[in-house]
Every structure is written in C-alpha cells, then in structure tokens.
Amino acid sequence: LFAAMTALALLPSTSVALVISRSVSGGPRHGVATSLGVVAGDLVFVALALLGMTALSAALGSVFSVVRLLAGLFLVYYGVQLWRRASSSTDDSKQSKPAPDAPWYYPGSLLGSFSAGLGLTLADIKAIVFYASLLPLFVQLNPLSYTDAALVAAITVVSVGGAKLFYVLLAGQLPRHAIPARHRKTAHRTMGSG
Question: Which of 110, 108, 116, 114 has its CA nearest to residue 88?
C-alpha cells in the first residue's frame, strides 16, 4: 500500500503542479500548506473508503457531485485570482504577500494554499477511483480494526505527504528570480490556467 500510494503521489498530476506552483509563487510555507491540504483530502477519501464509499455515495446521492462542483469552482476562482495578480503587478513583494485582511481563500494566504490543495484533491477523479476501487485490493476493509484504520491513515500521511513535500523541496531549488520579470506575467497566467 505504501509503495502504491507513494508512486501515485509522485506521478505528475494536477496536485503536483499545484504544490510546485504554490511553492514557487509563495515560498516553501505555501507549498507545505498546499501539501497538507492534499493530504487532508486523501484522509477524507480514506475515511470514506473505510466507511464504505460505494454505499455512502449511494446513500448521499448528489452530495458528492455538489462537493466536486464546489471544489472545481474554487479552483477556477483560484486560477482567475492568479491571472488577475499577474495583470496587476510584477513586483515580487506585492505578489507574494496577501493583504492583512485577506480572506481564507485568498491565493496568497496559507489557508488559501491549504484550501486549494484540499479542493483539488476532493475534485480529483484519480483519487476517487483509487480510494473507491484500488484501496480494497490492498486492504481488506470489512473486518478492519481501529489499529488497522490508523495504520492506513498513517501510511496515507507519510506516503502522500512525503511525495508532495519532495516536490516542495524540488521547487525550493529553483531560484526565486529564475523567471525574468518580463516573463512573470506569463508564468502566473500559466499557473492560473492549470
């Protein structure tokens, strides 16, 4: 389970792109916050899988669709904010610091980075398929003790979190000014389009 989850978390994906873009645009703290959001979303799926995701999704009906829609809308909003940020200024000090009264969802806040990671994971079809279909191949879910459930959660935190933190470290190796000022607007718009 650990090897499979680590390999899937290391594969290039939208969550990897988000972690790297938040690490580059906001620094390692934002990359870590985004990674924690991704892990939190995975833990939600672990809990749902352990509770019987198929039965739960049938019982809740369209609630899963609404959650995915809201997460997707948040990510669109986040992308638009990156586009607007690219248009407003090319000064790094203005781009990387939110206003003092910035709301939780503001792309420059740590909670905004966490929320972006969480929202992206909750809307990720790959994560849903893995936890609903493939997790039962690795773990017998029916007679699962509390100790086994805690072990699955710990494996999730270490494998997924470790893989995302690896990308935070890689992004930290990029010099802060690797992108010339004339290309930063394009870089922000590219990250916003992801």
Answer: 108
